[in-house]
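User: Structure please.
Assistant: Input sequence and predicted structure:
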Amino acid sequence: MSLEAIIAIGFIALIAVETTISWLHNLRTYEFRDTVANFALAFGDLFMAAAMKAVFLVLFGVLHRLAPLDMGLSWVSWALLVVINDLIYYVFHRLGHRCRFMWAFHVTHHSSQKYNFSVAVRLNLFILPLHFLFMLPLALLGFRPEAILVINSITTLYQLWVHTELVGKLGFFDRILNTPSNHRVHHGSNPQYLDRNYGAMFIFWDHLFGTYEPEAEKVVYGLTKNVGSHNPVTLTFHETRAMLRDVMRPGPLRQRLMYLFGPPGWRPREAPESRRRAPDGHAPRGARAARTPRYVATARHVAAALQVVARRARWRPYQPVRQSSSDTRAVAPQAAHRPLYNHRRR
C-alpha cells in the first residue's frame, strides 16, 4: 500500500471519529452539503496538484542548478528547510489575506461556517500553483527539488489536524506551534480574530510580526459576508468575479490596480460631489465630477458666485433692518453675515 493511500485512509478515519463524537454530543460540527462541497473542492485540488507538481519539479531543478551551493540532505539542511519554508508560508499566507488577488483564491478555504477536519481540504484549485511560485527561492538557496516537495507535503499534512474543535488549548505548545486553538482564531470572523495567526507549523512568526491572537471568546466561523452557496464552482470563482467586476469599473489606473492588488474590501475615497444630493432631482455626477480638472471646477464656482451676486442685486436689494425700541438684540445676525456664495451647497 502506498503512502498516499495510508494518509487518505487515516484522514477518512479521523473524519469518521469526529463525526461520531459530534453526533453523540449533538455538536453539529458537520453539515452534509458543506462536507460534500469540501470533498468536491479537494478533488479539484488533487487534480491540480498532479498536473503542477511535475512542472514545478522541473522549475526547482533548473533553479537549483543556478544556486551558488548545494545544501544537500543532511539533518542541518532539513532543519533549515523546515524553518525557512515555514517563514515563506507565513509571508504567502499573510499576503493571501492582505492582497485581494491572492485572497480571491484563498477565500474558498475560509468560506465554510463549520470547522472540522474536512474543512482542511476545502481549497481553491489555483492556490497550489501560487504557493509553489513562492517556494521557488528555496531552490535558489540550494535546497534540492525533492526535499522542497517533501517539506511541502509535510506542511500540508500537519495542517490537517488543526482543523477541529475537539482539541482544546494545549498550554505551552500554543505559544510555539500552530495548534487547533490558534488556527480556530485564524478562521474566525470575529473582529478581533480577523487576519491573525498565519503560521503553518510554527506560531512564533505571528509573535514576531505582531499578528498573534489567542483564543478568548467563542469563534464565529466563515466570512464577514458569507457566500450563501455550496456550489463548488461558486465557491471557487465568486471572489474572482467580484474582483474583475470592480477592476472594470470606470476610473484611473491606480484605482484598478488597488482593486486588484489592494487589501480586500478596498474602495476609492468617494468624491464630495457624489455625496451631495443633486439639485432639481438630477442624478449626482459622482466619478465624473471627481475627474473634473481643478481649473474647470474653479471657473464653475466663480461663475456660480457671480450669478448669485447678480440675482441678489436684481431681485433682493439691500433693506436696512428695523429694530423696535424695546428689543435691543440684533435681528437675524446670521443673515447679516451670510456669505454670498457657499460652495458646500452645490
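DSSP finds 14 helices and no strands in the chain.
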